[in-house]
Specification:
Blueprint lengths: L3 E5 L3 H18 L11 E5 L21 H11 L4 E3 L9 H8 L2 E3 L1 H11 L4 E5 L5 H9 L3 E3 L3 H16 L4 H16 L4 E4 L4 H5 L8 E2 L1 H14 L1
Parallel strand pairs: 1-2, 1-3, 3-4, 5-6, 5-7, 7-8
Helix pairs in contact: 1-9, 2-3, 4-9, 6-7
């Protein structure tokens, strides 16, 4: 089997969730045999934002990839045959990361587009940190109409995502995620993409509903498939 590299840590809890999803997919696909029934996997936990930030902690504009991401990708590529990134913003720089790693990087956006096309979805709700640009741009290229929540709802969700990263999420943060989903549903979104890997953790079991698309789950399924081919 091929070795999976996980370029993670940007969302610590989301990275751990992704690792669990990879192992669950391996159990689904492979015949159980001790600890041999899982693809080899190496994970790097970054402890900084994926992009350069100013003194106020906000990302600089236009966005610039933090060089430490490329350094980590190069180190990970020395171990791995393919790389997954369980965070969305770094996918704006996927080609740079792939060149640094020297190996295949599976796109969380591509697998999401594939799923929407499989379902023949032409209008989709999108929730994430702000309005996740990496999805919004691709959806428009694919002629998929995008529905987003009003700004106050997005602001509360942004805060909830950051608190989850810190391990400080409480009920009002979980409610902010549910409210964001309800908002785009009310606006006519038959299907909603969870465009931040923390949102499934905020939603809990509700994240498994049929009208929600979890890109992290799709990514886990795809990297396991490629690892065991």
């Amino acid at each position: 089997m091929r070795t999976i590299g996980v370029l993670g840590g940007i969302g610590p809890q989301a990275t751990m969730d992704f690792e669990a999803r990879v192992h669950a997919e391996a159990r689904r696909l492979l015949q159980p045999r001790f600890n041999e029934s899982y693809p080899p996997m190496v994970t790097v936990y970054l402890r900084h934002a994926p992009v350069l930030v100013g003194d106020d902690g906000r990302p600089r504009q236009p966005l610039v990839l933090d060089p430490r991401v490329l350094d980590a990708a190069a180190r990970l590529g020395a171990w791995a045959d393919l790389i997954a990134i369980p965070s969305n913003t770094p996918h704006l720089f996927l080609e740079e990361i792939g060149r640094a790693a020297g190996c295949e990087v599976t796109s969380i956006v591509d697998v999401t587009i594939d799923e929407l096309q499989r379902r023949e979805i032409e209008r989709v709700g999108l929730v994430g940190l702000g309005i996740p640009r990496v999805y919004e741009e691709r959806f428009r290229l694919e002629r998929i109409e995008v529905v987003v929540a009003p700004e106050p709802v997005r602001d509360r969700l942004d805060d909830a995502i950051l608190r989850l990263m810190e391990g400080l999420a409480v009920e009002r943060h979980h409610e902010a995620a549910r409210a964001a989903i309800a908002s785009v549903r009310d606006a006519g979104a038959a299907v909603t993409v969870l465009g931040c890997t923390e949102i499934p953790l905020l939603l809990g079991p509700e994240a498994e509903k049929d009208d929600l698309v979890n890109p992290a789950q799709l990514l886990a399924r795809e990297v396991v498939r490629r690892a065991v081919e």
